[in-house]
Specification:
- The structure holds 2 protein chains of 2 kinds.
- In chain A, the strands form 3 sheets. Chain A has a 6-stranded mixed beta sheet with strand order 5-7-9-11-14-15.
- In chain A, helix 2 packs parallel to helix 3.
- The two termini of chain A are 44 Å apart.
- Helices cover 22% and strands 32% of the residues of chain A.
- Chain A is α/β, with parallel strands linked by helices.
- The longest helix of chain A has 15 residues.
- By secondary structure, chain B is α/β, with parallel strands linked by helices.
- In chain B, a hairpin with a 6-residue loop joins strand 3 and strand 4.
- In chain B, helix 1 crosses helix 11.
- Chain B is globular.
- Chain B is built from 12 helices and 8 strands.
- Classes of the chains: A alpha/beta, B alpha/beta.
- The interface between A and B is small, with 11 and 11 residues.
Amino acid sequence: MTDENQMKTEPPVKLKGVGGGLWITIDPSRPEDLIKREVKTLFERLRNLAINAEVVIDTGGAKGHEALIKELKTYLIETFHVKTVKKPPEKRSVPVERIRQRDLSRSFNHHRSDVMMLRGRVRSGQKIESKKHIVIAGDVNPGAEISAGGDIIVLGRLKGKVHAGVPDNHNSIIFALEFNPTQVRIGSITAAGVKESSKSAAEFASIDREGIVVQDYLKVNPFGKIPWPEVI
Amino acid sequence: MKGKIIVVTSGKGGVGKTTATSAIGAALALEGNRVAVIDMDIGLRNLDVVMGLENRIVFNIVDVVNQKCKLSQAAIKDRRIDNLFLIPASQSDNKDVLTTEAVERISEDLKSEFDYVLMDSPAGIERGFENSIVGANEALVVCTPDVSSVRDADRVIGILYSKSLTPKLIVNRIEPQRVQRGEMLSHEDVLDVLSVELAGLVPLDEYVLTATNAGAPLVLQNDSRAGQAFRRIAKRLNGEESLPVEVPTHKTSMWSKISKKFGLAK
């Protein structure tokens, strides 16, 4: 069956109740007469339910067809006494819309964080493990070990052994205000720390095509590219 | 009398725990306190040799814990310094003969007998170490300015914090000349990593070896810089907390001072 045939089997007008109103999805590629007839049958079946309803006419993303929509609008208001007839609100792509809604809606406030945040010095022999991201406000001494399922952020000197993205998340990063670890692992890739002390700038390690690279954080600004705050 | 038990520990061996214990113990006694120093290194006893009391040992700490003798019988009185007592370790047993419960029990007796009890902990973080910290009220961590010693001290500090003991740090064997040349970690570098309160800084001193071998109290030698540093640490422990920590410096010769003034020195 071709695409066209499949479309033809779909009804030219679909109606569903949305919130406080009605949502009509029309297929503008079909003859106008057919659409009008279908709308008429559907609304006649609704009768009183249509009175004062807020109606949205959705052309399924097809541009134009202003005349048809206008015609339907006057017809619906005069014949069935609906309250308003509008076009659907502008849509963003679905995944973007979903993230944005999650972040900027109320759920932002009662979101359970996937971050483990600690304060204080991590000493030699101490091992911190988490399936989440780890943020440490303090120093990580040589001989200490940090392992996280996600990113590792150290707001201080990092001199211990760190493993981010356990077991195989290669998108994780390791950040430190003073980046000087004995060993770095991201996912399954390991790199030995360097002896010389790092520059005074904040640095982070991430995975490149060639392996683990350490870069100046502010110059690369890996999270600066995300346009709005995301919950993690 | 309700005394204090102070454990002297380090993690790493050979950094000067025993020297520090004997010197601080002697210095605290010189301040007029009744002091006991206890060798907790069962099986490898040293403190008696360092204090020159080896030939007077009859009973030891294991006998006290196992109630074979009284505390007063095991405590050897130092003849040169009043109010200084040594309770030696047993040389024939191993560290497993003591249990933490038994040590905890005698620590109450010790606190009622003495003003200060210094426990010389063995190296490591095993049974012997656990036994020495179980009754302690305070902890002194000794380290030398080298990376491995700092690493072990860091581990020990972590364990002490987990046992609700807040340790103080002694940086031993500082060589000011080498620090100046950048060959040795400075005490600031050490404190950067360990970030605990500093009890004192002790310079490397050739008197330590001769005093240790002779079993003579280091703190009685007025021209020993290490001995004097330990005396200041004892004063700080004994309530003079405001006594400033002296940073060991390298004494430059008259000639280099003069040439420096004229801009001739490097």
